[in-house]
Write a structure and sequence with these properties.
Two copies of one chain form a homodimer. Chain A is of the alpha/beta class. Chain A folds into two domains: about 100 residues, Rossmann fold, CATH 3.40.50.170; about 90 residues, Rossmann fold, CATH 3.40.50.170. The first copy, chain A, is built from six helices and ten strands. In chain A, the strands form two sheets. Chain A has a seven-stranded mixed β-sheet. In chain A, strands 8-9 form a two-stranded antiparallel sheet. In chain A, helix 1 crosses helix 6. The longest helix of chain A has 24 residues. At the A-B interface, helix 5, strand 7, helix 6, strand 9 and strand 10 of A face helix 5, strand 7, helix 6, strand 9 and strand 10 of B.
């Protein structure tokens, strides 16, 4: 039995990934225990999700702090105070500073709704639609000081279909997010991740060498 | 029976994509006839491949022309002289100007060994390995004035495996190139491609909405 890793979730809004992680943890499918949920917005639905599951819900408004570093120091204090070992960003709309990153080296994860390095930043699904790519997806990565630039742990690909809107595409990507984000946490908890340069090495398990996805299909 | 489209292939080197296209055309699997192969290098193996199949092989050295436009004008003259309707770049290491593009509007194709817009330009496989992405692939696109920026027709995805080298990854991508490039020519020949903004609309056929490729697998 793998020891459960203590997870602190940071969110700004709805937190659907957060729900997927909480659900899998509760069902015992994930060697993780979500010990606190922190938001920077008092109206974030993520707070309600946490409370419903008896998880400590904390609102830390960035407006109460003099700057990013001061805010991140408060985050670190709250996270460390709850014994957090892994910080998971779930729609947390704040730029992270080295104050947080140095406190949790190679232990801050993010998920982005595109195949990075394509379409970093906001509105990734809309960027993909406007560019006209035929495939997109999501990327779970370690967070570094850049925007969506950290070492990549896992990527999932989906096709873009002719009638796709931002909503339909987001839904298709969400489905993959809810699988890949828990999986990345599992790999972390099992101690199977190591970083070599920019590459994340994963002990055991990779896609078949003849796996492919083609859109339109051949 | 679809009318065969007359294809002119431009190459600078080995031309393995060119071989796949010639082979499928000869076998009658592709509604296309390769009417000429043009290279800018006299030692391009592509010339030999063409001759072996009885296809007109032309060497046009860029050194014999005063600039890109003059060179492209010569290309256009040679292509039009052979009745070419579709220009297919197969490892052609020259920047294309509007002289060629205006002569063949929405009728110049290129293939790039990455999931554009990620890793444009040279050494795409090495770029992908160094970045540490978990998936990459190839992209067939209409050529515009930028480098690998034109509207995307088809993309194929493959995983990157832990032990991959540039060679092993290139081989895996080549396998998809040899499927997707002929398919793009087929779609063109069948009149199924139209461009709306940056998006290529394809009459009939797209990947299943629940298709996915995840690496590492979940």
């Amino acid at each position: 039995m793998v020891k459960k890793v203590k997870v602190g979730l940071l969110a700004s809004g709805n937190g659907s990934n957060l729900q997927a992680i909480i659900d899998q943890s509760e069902r015992g499918e994930l060697p993780a225990e979500v010990v606190c949920v922190i938001t920077n917005r008092s109206d974030a639905f993520a707070l309600e999700r946490a409370r419903k599951h008896g998880i400590t819900a904390i609102h830390l408004s960035h407006r109460d702090f003099s700057g990013r570093e001061a805010y991140d120091a408060a985050l670190v204090a709250a996270l460390k105070g709850h014994g957090v070992e892994l910080v998971v960003l779930a729609g947390f709309m704040r730029i992270i500073t080295t104050v947080l990153l140095d406190a949790f080296p190679l232990a801050v994860l993010n998920i982005h709704p595109a195949l990075l390095p394509s379409f970093p930043g906001l509105d990734a699904q809309q960027q993909a639609l406007e560019y006209g790519v035929k495939v997109t997806g999501c990327t779970v990565h370690f967070v570094d000081e850049g925007t969506d630039t950290g070492p990549i742990i896992i990527q999932a690909v989906v096709p873009i279909l002719p009638d796709d809107t931002v909503e339909s595409l987001s839904l298709r990507i969400h489905h993959q997010e809810h699988k890949t984000y828990p999986e990345a946490i599992r790999l972390f908890a099992q101690g199977r991740l190591s970083v070599k340069g920019r590459r994340v090495m994963i002990a055991g398990g990779h896609a078949s060498s003849d796996a492919s996805l083609i859109n339109p299909p051949v």
